[in-house]
What does this fold into?
Amino acid sequence: MKSFKDIYKNSENKIAGIAAAPGIVIGKVYLFTKEKLEISKAPITNSEEAIINFEEALRQSKKELNKIFGIAREKMDEVRAAIFEAQLMILDDPILLSNIEKRIKDEMIQPEFIVADEISKYQELMIISHESYMKERAHDIEDIKHRIIRNLQKKRWQSKIEKNLIVVSEALTPADTLLFSRSESLGFVTDHGGLTSHAAIISRSLNIPAVVGTHNASTLIKDGDTIIVDGFHGYIITNPTEVQLNFFTEKQKKLYEIQKGLEELKDQPAVTMDGKEVNLEANVDVTGEIDIVITSSAKGIGLYRSEQILNELGTFPDEEEQTVIYSKLASRIYPKFVTIRAFDIGGDKFRFSEYKEPNPFLGLRGIRFLLENESLFRTQIRAVLRSSENKNIKFMIPMISTLDEVWRTQKIIQECKSELKKEKIKFDNHIKIGIMVEVPSAAVMAKDYAEEIDFISIGTNDLIQYMMAVDRGNDLVSNLYQEFSPVIIRTIDHIVSAAKESKIPVSICGEMAADTLAIPLLVGLGLDSLSMSPGTILYAKRIIRGFEFKKAKTLAEECLQCKTEVEIQKKVKKFFDDNNISRTRNIL
Amino acid sequence: MIEKIVKIVNKAGLHTRPAATIVKLAAKYKSEFFIYRDGMSINGKSIIGVMTLAAEIGSELKLTFEGPDEQQACDEIVAYFERGFDEL
It folds into this structure.
């Protein structure tokens, strides 16, 4: 049987991108091109008629946007949906509209030219700004301009496409992605965008395979082509050969079978053959993913990345807005719990000062940033507390590297609690506060931290990066990013022992928890909980149900004696073979 | 006419939400309302105009109000700036 490597190695018809949402689809392409509108500068004879046309175009545009706004509110939450509200306001902008109408009368040329000319003036001002969010804003304005002009030209709004197609486009606006998802699109491929682009986030939350950031897929692929989208590896195969088609059809079948088999596990506990239960929890990026979490049989949300709200909004939500988001989250997941991680952002993501950090990963990140921006931190703490009335929220602090940071955080939380008591607002007075252990200094002192807090969550991505002093995005050294390095295994063991000694729960929420190969070892090391993307929970459950805790413990003990990553990997793989557990990796 | 200099004091600056609020506040008054920045003047009743202002924390803007209810308009809008768009 060929592997993915074999298939991709010699394929000249592959296009590489970023794997934004998992899954494999084979299907026909709908090439979505934002029609380049021909704008006529022709003279007109009747300005009154032109203005009536213009007003009709505005009405139509409003109708469209209201529809999108409605879908957005249904699929996303109120605050995120608000990006469309500003667009709607522009359609009512008295200054813009009166300028356009006046120019139509004065200049007697086609309204579409005047609309383009007037709106472009604003866009140019935005594009010359140094602020990166202004360029985003210019894109939003482009969307509105395009919409009005299309309606002036009475061109149809493409809100529906034929069902079951793969949408390929240069870029997809949030509006496009939402609309196409309603046409049961099979997959999304875009030239631009990264993992946090709207298209990526929405595809993940809707379970639609997607590959983004391909640079030029939309020029290489033609409408009606058959393509394969591999949302696991981030590749697209154009006009596949018979061999490729067979290969991926086979994979799809296997995937389907696994998923079908997995479905049956939904109501079964994640328990080893000798009765040790492991809590499988979900990592959540966007509110839209909660539906998937609820059906995934997760025990709760082990990691809610609150900074994603900023990514989507482009700005900081205030206390009220955060309270709405967190309360909704907590009530949707109730009686299960949600662990909200405080905003984990660095100076490079949201620029508040002129100072550009030379090394942001060693800079003002996580708790360091929050303590520097205390009023902002307080809005989040107050919002989290205000949403905790049903006692199913835990609060987690990222990037802790000194005990002092823990104490300062606790003091601020205490102050916020006193304020809320005075204001007679209800909250969970015993809300559990935990930390992420992801910096070596915190790992070494784990025992001292464990005495101060309610739980520990190990963030393996950063922990490995900082322990090994390696940037995994840097190809020159990424081979040193070793999940199974003895250093990492021993460090995890050290943290787990510290937590056990203080009798507090310890979980893992990095990508390592989702690496099916690592699961027996992590369970053997004594982790109580593993938090992963909701889509991988059932895969993990299948593995856990396939071995004995006793044996996993022995495996862990052996691995703790190893000196190299290779030795550990060998032992782990042998464990799978010895216990007859098939690894998903082999199939996918 | 009333003229006022205001300073942006919230962290995120004049982003979309405060821009929308300013425009909604201005719409309640008959008076003309302009925002000046770096030699550029923007009609404060225009959302698309206010959205073009990338005013980050620390930047100063000049506001002018002119009309029958200029004092009330000025009071309410300047107060909103001073409250850091209610984001402090």
Notes: Chain A touches chain B at residues 82-83, 85-86, 89-90, 92-96, 119, 122, 125-126, 129-131, 133-134, 137, 141, 314-316, 318, 350, 352, 373, 375-376, 379 (CB under 8 Å). The mean pLDDT of chain A is 87. The first strand of chain A starts at residue 14 and ends at 16.
